[in-house]
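Onboarding guide, step 5: your first structure request.
Type a short instruction followed by the sequence, for example:

Predict the 3D structure of this protein.
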Amino acid sequence: MSLKPGAVRDAIVRYLRAQGVDGAKVRDIHAAVEEYIGQEVAASSVRSYLNINTPAQFERLGHGIYRLQNA
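The system replies with structure tokens like these:
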């Protein structure tokens, strides 16, 4: 089953918005994305989206830890 355009993005933003200023580890973000979407998602898709959109949309707090900009 293919994903709707923006599904991974929306799930990442939804999860990180709920995490607030503390941010979250990539593995936790990935697990939340799969839960929100209801199917398996490649971990590389989550990592790629985070990397491509840092620092514009996300802030990297440390190795593998991200939060939304202006959280």
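Each response can be followed by summary notes, for example: Helices lie at 7-19, 26-37, 43-52.
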